[in-house]
Amino acid sequence: MVGCPRRWCGSWRLWSSWWGCRGTGRQARSAGGAGGECCCAAAVIAGYILEFTFGALGLIPDQAAATIPTEGISWNYTTFLNIAFLLLAAAFLIRFLRTGGRQMLAMMGGAPGSEEHGGEGRHDG
Prior knowledge:
By secondary structure, the chain is mainly alpha-helical. It has 6 helices and no strands. It has helices at 6-9, 12-19, 22-30, 37-56, 77-98, 101-107. It is flat.
């Protein structure tokens, strides 16, 4: 990969498949281009553009003014909301299991057109 060291982008194949650049790389290679490097270079250039833009607008905080929170774990309203919703999720799970949810999921497990469904939805033509 010319112009795009692996340390900048990690595994470019994973990155390009995630961001949809894999097809672009194939098209560029078939045309005699650089391949997947175009996506990696574009990401590096976009990162520099954002850094310089944010710096020029003063949106990057000063590291000397940064503070590290020393509070640790505290009990506040979000703690109680988390506990309440965990209890609600547990109640829904228990109700699902008691009312035949497992059997329903097992019944729905077959693929369309399989023997379980009697061939419904099968398209041979």
